[in-house]
Amino acid sequence: MIWNIPHPIQPTRFAAVHILVAGVFLCAACSWWGDERHAIRARLDAFEERVNASAPEGIGSVTRTVEIGQYFTEDVSVDLGDGTAPIAGREMLMGIAARLQARTSEFRLDFADVNVQLAPGGESAEVDLTAQFIRRAAGSRQSMDAREFKLTMRREEGEWRIAQVVAVETLK
Amino acid sequence: MSTARRIIFGPNPRRTTVRIAVLALVCIVVFGWVLLPVRADGDSMLPTYASGRLTLVNRMAYIRSSPRRGDIVAIRLAGPRVVYIKRVVGLPGERLSVEDGQVLIDGSPLLEPYVRHQHEWNFEEVTLGAHEFFVVGDNRGTSTFGRVEAERILGRLVF
Question: Residue B28 falls within a domain, yes or no?
Fold first, then answer.
């Protein structure tokens, strides 16, 4: 009978390399999931999903507007640039959102290139992103517009909320 | 080794795996950092680029040189995933204005054979900064236009 005895060193080294690689991946995954930047991205994904959800009618539309409002701070300010009046406060923003609901349901919002920079202390963050507005049409994907925005986000009661929105002029 | 496996993986599966890995790595580097694939969306670059057309952005095009007049460039917004595609018409330091659709560079009319969809638009004269370019789409009826900082230009479109 022939015994196939493996080399005494090789399996140990092989296992060590695997454990090391797994450890590195585990550390990377832990730091990614535990990072506040990930929490901010997840919050923006949830906002995107909420905005893109089909618009209900009646009381449902009021509930939806209130839910969208929860993503903003009470004193939120929105500056969409030249030709538009600035929006000050959540109440005003929700009012505008409710009035424009029929029009906004014609497109889908898509965030791309989301860059998050946490401020020292970790209670606020600057977010730079591209918002793409895509027309909802069966079988086609036509972009209506794409604009860059700078957001300031603040943590309030354990939730990240949008405190400021400023449109960036890519072409001046 | 069965014939099918031999056809798929070749006589040396280990070498084939390495080749596939290297090819994948090369593709990731080339299409992630050197030649960025983009799809035109909208009609602002008609007739040069129709909506839906795929093309590549050469991100190495302006490493040793600056964008030239007539170049079609990709302009980044917050990052490289969504870009504007525009044509460079004004270069740094130039005075640019538009009168009834005619682009004037330092007071002289610019010949633009690529413009098929002309539009009578006007633009007050501006002097471009040391690192500014003036860009506009070929479809003058619908395209957005303006000054753009050189650092926002990702590269030149390949075809």
Answer: no
